[in-house]
């Protein structure tokens, strides 16, 4: 039996951090064994807000590809490609834009939210308004049934279903209605205890060196009430402990908490242990990345081959849509 299809993407906005790994990538790596998976580096989506300065675009695409491959996405198991290399997506996007009511796009909560958040930046553009229609196209062009995303993407998934339904209603059954495959809410805290995010400058990147990790962890704020290293501490208010909970084995974790409460371990030593565990965790990813960085042509080849496979699948759907819309002069 054919495997179910999943599709997901990320905008190329720079290197990925541990939050991206636990919030998305780790799950994709598991899912590639059970599903026919398509994963896109969505550069057109990046342009919807960052159209003015595109000087880093190619480097950002390369960084995302390197991070994906290092983290375990396997081109023999899934299809990895750059969105703009699959031009069939742009034609289907145009067709779907014909049937997408403006009001659906205008009332999309992410649209209103971003307009407010990025005030001052001129993003009141046609392309940005169409973001969810382009995302729907990404998914529908492969007839994907499932989309592994975070909760923030739910409104976009809802719109994708509405667009599929509308197309099916007007032109006949063509697209399945895609469902979100939610990653269980695991928000990874950053160096300052807030959600790990590039924009908070509190992130540890998959590509950070051991030295960078040691330095970053060394600057973390621990229990502010703890002045001397033998003062009793409270792991519950400590950002380092929040990360220990994710990266430290249970026995060592319990031991750490006990020693902290009893003032038997200082914050410097405790953070040194955390850094070590982070470095150990990232070691295989870092080694793989280093190997790939030295072979950029191999990475380019993987993306080209991915685009070729994606185009083949996308072309089939596009043909079907064109026929249904009577755009194909050769269809009977
Ligand atoms: P972004 O580039 O912020 O849109 O994130 C890309 C993906 O990583 C999305 O699926 C997010 O849900 C996920 N993500 C980003 N930061 C975190 C975090 N700190 N914890 C968990 N997931 C995250
Ligand atoms: N909007 C998604 C995000 O910001 C990225 C994205 C674009 C996407 N196209 C997609 C995700 C298709 C899943 C499926 O994270």
Structure summary:
The chain has 332 residues and is mainly alpha-helical. 54% of the residues lie in helices and 6% in strands.
What features would you describe in this structure?
The chain has 332 residues and is mainly alpha-helical. The protein folds into two domains: 213 residues, HUPs (Rossmann fold); 80 residues, Tyrosyl-Transfer RNA Synthetase (Orthogonal Bundle). It contains 14 helices and five strands. Strands 1-2-3 form a three-stranded parallel sheet. The chain has a two-stranded parallel sheet with strand order 4-5. The longest helix is centred in the C-terminal third of the chain and has 29 residues. It is elongated and about 80 Å long. The mean pLDDT is 93. The site of adenosine monophosphate has 14 residues, from helix 1.
């Amino acid at each position: 039996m054919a495997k179910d299809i999943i599709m997901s993407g990320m905008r190329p906005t720079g290197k990925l951090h541990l939050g991206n790994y636990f919030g998305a990538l780790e799950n994709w790596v598991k899912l590639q064994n059970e599903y026919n998976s398509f994963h896109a580096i969505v550069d057109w989506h990046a342009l919807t807000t960052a159209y003015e300065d595109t000087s880093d675009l190619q480097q950002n695409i390369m960084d995302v590809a390197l991070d994906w491959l290092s983290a375990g996405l396997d081109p023999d198991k899934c299809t990895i490609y750059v969105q703009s290399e699959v031009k069939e997506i742009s034609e289907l996007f145009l067709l779907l834009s014909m049937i997408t009511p403006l009001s659906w796009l205008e009332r999309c909560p992410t649209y209103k939210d971003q307009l407010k958040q990025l005030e001052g930046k001129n993003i009141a553009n046609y392309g940005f308004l169409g973001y969810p229609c382009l995302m729907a196209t990404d998914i529908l062009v492969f007839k994907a049934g499932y989309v592994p995303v975070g909760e923030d993407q739910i409104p976009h998934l809802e719109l994708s279903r509405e667009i599929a339904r509308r197309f099916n209603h007007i032109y006949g059954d063509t697209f399945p209605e895609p469902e979100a495959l939610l990653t269980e809410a695991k928000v990874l805290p950053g160096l300052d205890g807030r959600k790990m995010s590039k924009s908070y400058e509190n992130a540890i990147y998959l590509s950070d060196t051991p030295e960078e990790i040691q330095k970053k962890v060394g600057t973390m704020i621990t229990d502010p009430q703890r002045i001397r290293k033998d003062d009793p501490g409270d792991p519950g208010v400590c950002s380092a402990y929040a990360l220990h909970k994710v990266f430290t084995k249970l026995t060592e974790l319990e031991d750490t908490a006990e020693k902290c409460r009893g003032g038997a371990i200082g914050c410097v030593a405790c953070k040194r242990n955390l850094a070590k565990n982070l470095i150990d965790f990232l070691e295989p990813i870092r080694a793989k990345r280093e190997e790939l960085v030295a072979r950029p042509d191999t990475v380019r080849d993987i993306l080209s081959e991915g685009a070729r496979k994606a185009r083949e699948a996308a072309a089939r759907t596009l043909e079907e849509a064109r026929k249904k819309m009577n755009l194909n002069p050769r269809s009977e």
